[in-house]
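This section describes the prediction task in plain terms. A model, or a person checking by hand, is given the sequence of a single protein chain and must write out its three-dimensional structure as a string of tokens. No templates, partner chains or ligands are provided. The sample shown here is typical of the held-out split.
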Amino acid sequence: MISEFLKIAALSAAALLTFTSCGNRVNLMNSSTEADADTIELGGSYVEGEEYKNQDSSEPEKYIKQEITEEPTTEPATEPATIDIYENDYELPEKAVIDDFKTVFQNPELPTGCEITALTQTLNFLGFDVDKVTMCDKYMNTDFNGEYTMNQCYIGDPKSHTGFGCSAPVICKSARRYFRVEKSDCYPVDLTGTDFQELFYQIEQGRPVIVWTTMYLLDTKPEYVYTAKNGEEMWFCTYQHCLTIYGYDYEQGVVYAADPLVGNTTYSIERFEKIYDILGKQAVVICGDAENGLDAEPKPVTKSEPETTTETTVTTTETTTTEESTESATETETTETVTTND
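The expected answer:
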């Protein structure tokens, strides 16, 4: 019944069923919500230096105008380089927590805008002075009319309880647009598909990671689907959510998270990994910072090595000493035997 609703809603028909996303039960794309043509205009190409419709600002050159293109995904990627993902032989410390990462709360302005809020708090940490509403209004594609999927646009209105959500490619595109306007050489990297604990390498290197999960790590599964007008299918998990992880601790079994619904908190590594996998292993990192761009030094990280290292060394030394004593004793006995035989 719900999947049938989504198909009808994608065609702008009347519907009143609800889903849960980012802390709210929401009516998705029902007929009472007008399509935001000024926001999406059937596309999403980036044009710098032109004023975005229905916006007021003292800096119009920083606006973005959406223009009609074949599809939003036709915008070329702009990453000038790539980053190391995870080396199999790289040994992570027992604990690594990026210092001074602060949560930006999505409420009350963006009750279903967790994804753009997670990006905003990450940008703020990197020294960019921008707020979540600006990021939402000027840099993120939105679609109320069922034209596209969450890989291309935010579906619904993140400022109301009709918001649905978006996936990692949309957040990467929003970040690229922002960096172009700011004339920064920073860039996002989509790490979707990376195993969860391999993301810890990024944290150890001083890069917080934007990840897709569920609210409060509630159980979910991809059970709702509709076909957008561009012909692509979109699957949706209930309770879908997005936040930033900035630390981990193997001894305690937790990850440190900046959750736009909760604040700075910790979650079970095991539980988080399970939900992360269900949500499609979606993750994004930002390279560089506001002050130095790609020449930025790694952000300070508090680390701790396993406490068992010293004990292991002592045990090894004692074992070696015992073996050496045994060998010496054997040599002595052998010598005596030879002498006796002579």
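For orientation: The CA atoms of residues 114 and 208 lie 16 Å apart.
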